[in-house]
């Protein structure tokens, strides 16, 4: 059975409102050194599942160390694997079960990868919509939100370094490849990052059950930042105050709230459809 990836020393990050991308452009040189928290993906780790692996293989910023696959899975991703000039280690499904855990749906393939490179908030690409998460810690929710962000054309996902979901294999599998498609920026101070976005012209809309404006009667302004909070607690007070507007998604009384990933998908579709209507 192939051994799990070895641990590597933690790297450093830059201070202030600077951040780490999981996607996007290459980092700018320079910047002051400072401690960076462990996100669960600071060293080599395994990505698995056909969509997640294919997206990682096609991402030229993603460093890939090893590839383990069943013959059938290797055949399905033959072109992407060949482009990497990787030596495929042929394994049986049970070997991947032992490596990744019996409950992981690996679809016959896993690759050992390095974390994606770090970038600053200033490297945010020009885009009309960004998704901002306030202490959403469930990797399944964040993965699903990344998938929706990719589907509806959001340019980046921004969340706080602390009290956020780790950028690990669970998140990558749920994101179905979107972790290697949508830039993920981790910031030290979310409110400061939101203020920086407002200085760049972004209109920040927070979503809360008690929001003054109903989403279906609201026209978004672009560039737009969609701000979502953790389930249960929702948006923190300072995050609410930093938003330009608070909206609510109208639901029936019998089901007053939505899962954050569902709310995010609705909000992203709203932003995308309104933009298409105006264009």
TrEMBL record:
Gene Ontology CC annotation, any one: cytosol
InterPro entries: Alpha/beta_knot_MTases, Ribosomal_eL30-like_sf, rRNA_MeTrfase_TrmH, SpoU_MeTrfase, SpoU_subst-bd, tRNA_m1G_MTases_N
UniProt keyword terms in alphabetical order: Methyltransferase, Transferase
Source organism, top-level taxon: Bacteria
CDD domains the record matches: SpoU-like_RlmB
Record domain RNA 2-O ribose methyltransferase substrate binding: where: 46-119
This enzyme's EC code(s): 2.1.1.185
Region span, Disordered: 1-45
One example of a Gene Ontology biological process annotation: RNA processing
Pfam family, one: SpoU_sub_bind
GO-annotated molecular function: RNA binding; RNA methyltransferase activity
Annotated protein name in UniProt: 23S rRNA (Guanosine-2'-O-)-methyltransferase RlmB
């Amino acid at each position: 059975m192939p051994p799990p990836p070895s641990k590597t020393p933690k790297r450093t990050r830059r201070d202030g409102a600077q951040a780490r991308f999981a996607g996007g452009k290459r980092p700018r040189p320079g910047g002051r050194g400072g401690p960076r928290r462990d996100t669960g993906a600071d060293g080599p780790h395994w990505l698995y599942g056909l969509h997640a692996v294919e997206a990682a293989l096609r991402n030229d910023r993603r460093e890939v160390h090893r590839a383990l696959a069943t013959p059938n899975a290797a055949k399905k991703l033959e072109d992407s694997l060949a482009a990497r000039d990787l030596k495929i280690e042929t394994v049986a499904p049970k070997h991947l079960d032992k490596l990744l855990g019996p409950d992981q749906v690996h679809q016959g393939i896993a690759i050992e990868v390095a974390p994606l490179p770090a970038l600053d908030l200033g490297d945010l690409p020009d885009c009309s919509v960004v998704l901002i998460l306030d202490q959403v810690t469930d990797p399944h929710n964040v993965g699903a939100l990344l998938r929706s962000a990719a589907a509806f054309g959001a340019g980046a996902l921004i969340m706080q370094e602390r009290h956020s979901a780790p950028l690990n294999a669970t998140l990558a599998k749920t994101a179905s490849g979107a972790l290697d498609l949508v830039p993920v920026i981790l910031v030290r101070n979310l409110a400061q990052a939101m203020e920086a976005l407002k200085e760049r012209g972004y209109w920040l809309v927070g979503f809360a059950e008690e929001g003054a404006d109903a989403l279906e009667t609201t026209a978004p302004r672009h560039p737009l930042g969609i701000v979502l909070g953790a389930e249960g607690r929702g948006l923190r007070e300072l995050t609410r105050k930093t938003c330009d507007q608070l909206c609510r998604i109208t639901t029936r009384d019998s089901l007053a709230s939505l899962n954050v990933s569902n709310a995010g998908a609705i909000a992203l579709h709203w932003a995308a459809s309104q933009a298409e209507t105006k264009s």
